[in-house]
Design brief:
18 helices, two-stranded antiparallel ribbon, mainly alpha, two-stranded antiparallel sheet, 66% helix
Length: 436
């Protein structure tokens, strides 16, 4: 145990092995839904759901191991939500591209991703982002995570009259979310160690007792075969020979780049890792997630990146790579215990995500709100992420406005040249994604 502590630098981070293991469990439980959501989304494109389930678990595990053992951060990886929907509904169904060719697009994007990571272009861009914008990204992710939790738990639903509204309180599942949220809030306010994890455990127990969560008929199942998707995209790289397909590759690249960059910065802010506006070992973290994306494209899943739900593990005290390694191990085990994972419903994870949102929103107090040239783009980032349901879109809104407000305020010299480049990149990015 002492060697483990020394390898991960647990004492230096003022943590314990037990706390790191608990954080790993918490992170896994908070993001385990991706094992079921991703096969459902990619399955609509014609991909084999069992193979996607296995690819999702293995690609996530590979990224977690790299992030934990190489970068030594408590940050987990998994196929990103949103970009998987773009894969299925925009590329395959909307454009009529085969899922194999779309997978080839992910593979090519991941190779480009690796190259810009090796040449440290991603690291340079992240370091160039002003501190106030990084704080806004962290807070925005908190709002986004909380919104995901409220929606997943049934407390916030779509409403034709008001866009969104309160959920249906005649449903028992909605009350299960309310119970979980109240009990977790009480535990957090009382500063009970592992409050978020205990809250999820108690919510699962109440859900099972009340019949709102169905217990599986069996607990162990054979791991699904990867054969239908494994290396399927390699034979279709030659199909990427049109402007349309290169736009698809560029979209995979840009969305994953800024989703992951924003998530890494936000999580680093939450955990207190940022030093002089820079993230230590950011190069290793970027290599880890780009390698996971490459592995995922070969196994058969949409782009993999740093997962925002890692904030749940950080919130319970995870500060080292051991947290990510534990999460990775659980992803491997999940291949054989998939029936048991159905107990972890969105009502169970919703309270955790809401509390994490509260914790991440604390970054708001550090933003220089008295200067409008800073406050306006920061506000657009914070508001944009939950309202567009996209981390990268929220970043785009703020980064497009930032140079405009700074120049107007006579602070042109304070703008890093890369921020001008990002201005034009995001203008093109928004046009490509949102012009119908």
């Amino acid at each position: 145990m002492e060697r483990v502590s020394r390898f991960f630098g647990i004492e230096e981070q003022h943590s314990t092995v037990q706390r790191e293991i608990l954080a790993g469990f918490t992170t896994f439980i908070s993001m385990v839904y991706i094992l079921f959501v991703n096969p459902s989304v990619l399955g609509d494109s014609g991909m084999d759901k069992g193979a996607v389930f296995a690819a999702t678990a293995l690609a996530s595990a590979i990224g977690c191991f790299l992030m934990g053992l190489y970068a030594k951060y408590p940050i987990a990886t998994a196929p990103a939500l949103g970009i998987n929907a773009f894969f299925s509904y925009s590329v395959v169904i909307g454009m009529g591209v085969s899922w194999q060719t779309a997978l080839a697009g992910v593979f090519v994007a991941s190779l480009i991703f690796m190259l810009i990571t090796v040449f440290k272009l991603r690291e340079i861009i992240i370091d160039a982002i002003p501190r106030n914008m990084k704080l806004a990204i962290s807070a925005g992710i908190g709002m986004f995570v909380a919104f995901i939790g409220l929606h997943g738990g049934g407390l916030i639903v779509a409403n034709k009259s008001t866009v969104v509204g309160l959920g249906d309180f005649s449903q028992g599942t909605t009350w299960l979310t309310v119970f979980g949220l109240i009990i977790t809030v009480i535990l957090m306010v009382r500063k009970v160690p592992g409050a978020i994890f205990i809250g999820m455990l108690l919510t699962s127990i109440v859900g099972a007792i009340s019949g709102l969560i169905k217990l599986p008929t069996h607990f162990v199942a054979a791991a699904p075969s990867l054969k239908p998707t494994f290396l399927a995209g390699l034979n279709h790289i030659g199909d990427i020979n049109t402007v349309q397909m290169w736009v698809v590759v560029l979209t995979f690249l840009l969305v994953t780049f800024f989703d992951t960059a924003g998530t890494l910065v936000g999580l680093a802010e939450q955990a207190g890792f940022m030093k002089d506006n820079k993230m230590p070992r950011v190069g290793k973290a970027l290599v880890s997630d780009s390698t996971a994306m490459l592995a995922g494209s070969l196994l058969g899943t949409s782009p993999v990146g740093a997962f925002v739900e890692s904030s749940a593990g950080i919130a319970v005290g995870g500060r080292t790579g051991l947290t990510a390694v534990v999460t990775g191990v659980l992803f491997v085990f999940s291949l054989f215990f998939s029936p048991l994972l159905t107990v972890v419903t969105s009502q169970v994870t919703a309270p955790a995500l809401v509390i994490v949102g509260v914790l991440m929103a604390q970054s708001l107090k550090k933003i220089d709100w008295e200067k409008l040239e800073i406050a306006i783009p920061a506000f657009l980032i914070v508001l944009g992420m939950p309202l567009t349901y996209s981390i990268s879109d929220g970043i785009a809104l703020g980064f497009i406005v930032y140079p405009i407000t700074m120049i107007t305020a006579g602070r042109r010299k304070e703008i890093h040249p890369i921020m001008y480049v990002l201005f034009f990149v995001f203008v093109v990015f928004m046009y490509i994604l949102n012009v119908k």
